Amino acid sequence: MNAHAAAPTEAHGHSGWKTYTAIALILFALTALEVVTYEVHDGSITGAIASFVDPIFILLLVALSAAKFVLVAAFYMHLKNDSRIFSGTFVFPLIIAVVVIVALFTLFTYNRGLQHIF
Amino acid sequence: MTHDAHALHPPTATGLDSRKLAIWIFIGSECLFFASLISTYVIYRGQSTVGPFPNQILEIGLVTIGTALLLFSSFFVVLALNGLQHGKRGQFLSFLGLTILCGLFFVGMQVYEFTSFVHKGLTIHTNLFGASFFTLTGFHGTHVSVGVLWLITLFIQGLRGKLTPEKALNLEIAALYWHFVDVVWIVIFPVVYLMK
Fold it and tell me: B96-155, pLDDT tens digit by residue?
C-alpha cells in the first residue's frame, strides 16, 4: 500500500453523525443494562428476572462490557474502516493482555476456589 | 489528505502516518499495562484480612454518572474531529469543549471518591483491596488527567485558529488516546464496582 492509496481511507473512511449518535445511544443502553444487572444481583430488583440473572451475573457483565469495548474500538476509534495494520497493532497486544489476565486468574485461583474472587 | 499535509509528512513505507502508527503501538503497550493492573486487582480481591472491604465502601451512584459522561465524551470527541475534518469550526470547538468538561467531571468525581474513601479509613496502605484499588483507578485517573490536558492544548490551538482541517490528524491522535482511556474504564467499571 502506498501513501496515495492510503489517503482516501484515512480521509473518508470515518462514520458520520448518525452512526456516532446510534453508537452513543447503544453504549448508554448497555451501561444502563449493566447497572440493572448489578441491582438485580444485589437484591434491589426481585422477581422472575433475578432467577435468570443471578446464575449468569458475571458472564452477563463480561458480555456487556465486551460489547461496549468492541463498539468504541470499531466505530469511535475507526478500526472498522481504517488500515488493517492499525487493527493488528491493537488486537495483537489485546489478545496477549486477555491471555495474561486469564492465566494469572487461573494460576492464583487454582487452590483457592472462585468464591474468594467473586 | 491534502497536498499541504503530504508536504508536511512525506510518504512512509507502510503508506500510513508514522504518528498514527506510533499512537496505536503506544495503545497496544498500554493494554498490557492495564491488563497487569486489572489482574492484580482481581487476584487480590477477597484477600484482605482487615477492612474496609469493597462491599462496605464502594457505591455505584456517582461512578455510574462518571461512567456515562466518559462514554459521552468519546461521542463528543468524534463529533469534534468530524467538525474539524469538514472545516466546521463551531462544531469542532463546542464538542471539544464538552469533551474537556466531561473529562474534568470524571477527574473531579475520582478526587471526591478517593477523598471520601480516605475519610472512611481506606488508604493505599490499609489492606490489599486499598493498595490494588488505588493503584488501578489512580493510574486510570492519571491517564484521564493527561488526556484532558492534551485536549485543552488542542482546544487553545483551535481558538487561536492554528488547528486547521489539514492538521486534523493532531486531534485524531489525541482522540484515539481518549477513546482508549474510555475503553479501559469500560473494563474497570464492572470489574471494580459491579462485581464487588
Answer: 999 999 999 999 999 999 999 999 999 999 999 999 999 999 999 999 999 999 999 999
CA angle B76, B79, B82 (to 5 degrees): 155
- Residue A11 burial class via C-beta count within 10 angstroms: exposed 0-12, middle 13-18, buried 19 and up: middle
User: In degrees, to the nearest 5, what angle opens at C-alpha B85 toward C-alphas B79 and B88?
Assistant: 70
Residue in B153, B152, B138, B151 with CA at minimum distance from that of residue B179 = B151
- Surface-to-core class of residue B50, CB atoms within 10 Å of its CB (0-12 exposed, 13-18 middle, 19+ buried): exposed
- Quote the cell numbers at residue A6: 492510503
Q: Tell me which residue in A1, A3, A20 faces B75 most closely, judged by beta carbons.
A: A20
As given in the structure block, the three cell numbers for residue B57 are 465502601
Scanning chain A, the segments in alpha helix (DSSP H) are: 3-12, 17-42, 48-53, 57-71, 84-109
CB neighbour list of residue B114: distance below 8 Å, 6 or more residues apart: B134, B137, B138
User: A93, B31: Cβ pair inside 8 Å?
Assistant: yes
Is any Cβ of chain A less than 8 angstroms from the Cβ of B45?
A: yes
Chain A and chain B share a number of CB contacts under 8 A equal to: 151
